[in-house]
Amino acid sequence: MKKGLIILTSLLFILFSSLAIAVEIDSCQDLPTYGESYILTTNISDSNTCITISESNITLDCAGNMINFSTGGTDGQGVLLNAGLENITVQNCVLYEGSSSGDEINSAIYINQSNESLIYNNTVITYSQSANGIYGDGDSNIISHNNVIVAGNFANALYLGINSANPTIDNNELTSSNYRGITFNAVEESGFATNNIITGFRDGIYLSVTVGFNFINNTVITTGDNYPAIDINFVSNNNSFINNTIQTSGVSSYGILIHGLSHFNSFKQVWIYMMMGLLV
User: Fold this and answer.
1) What mean pLDDT comes out for the span 269-273?
2) What pTM was computed for the model?
3) Average pLDDT, the chain
4) Contacts for 19 with CB less than 8 Å, ≥ 6 apart
């Protein structure tokens, strides 16, 4: 009986020891430990970058707490994913840019060539001239259920750049009150944007050198004068738009603009409510 009890106790010890226990953090810092889970226990702030993730397989759960970054009006990120990482999760964060005075290119979340990561259920608010909401590149990243509001004159709610491939963007509210809701610059291979509400002053969606992307069941809104809701720009080919709703409210605005060097883009069940329709 004693021997059996000892064996049972040992097995329970091994079992509970193997369960991941999140490390509590209460300040801006580097998260350096491979495979660790971190949970934010309070609101935190920094004059520049607040949280840097520097190893793969890390989870940051803010548990609804605020990360107030770039409070000094200088270059900084709310959460920075260092280059070359994999399987990072950033979730349940409120990311707030603490100063509107800077003109640096800040981002609430910066995915720096990280792959197979999840950006989930975050609220983002930025104010300065070029402060993007979510910015980055990498392969097979998922951006889901975020609410992003940016106010700068050159600020994108979501920007994906060179070396981005196969992203999944779903169930987000992406709003730029003075610039673009989504900008894709050289996004490669097939990706999906589904069930998003995308609002821009200049463009709701702007594509440049983007190939084979699928936009399904989105609402795309533009509010500025003389701008399209969807702008298919330089050499963007074979993109698909299925069951999207387009709304424009600006003077001389239009639903879809396709530039001459972009080809084989398809549209099916696209509903347009606007001043003008399709301009090629």
Assistant:
1) 89
2) 0.91
3) 90
4) none
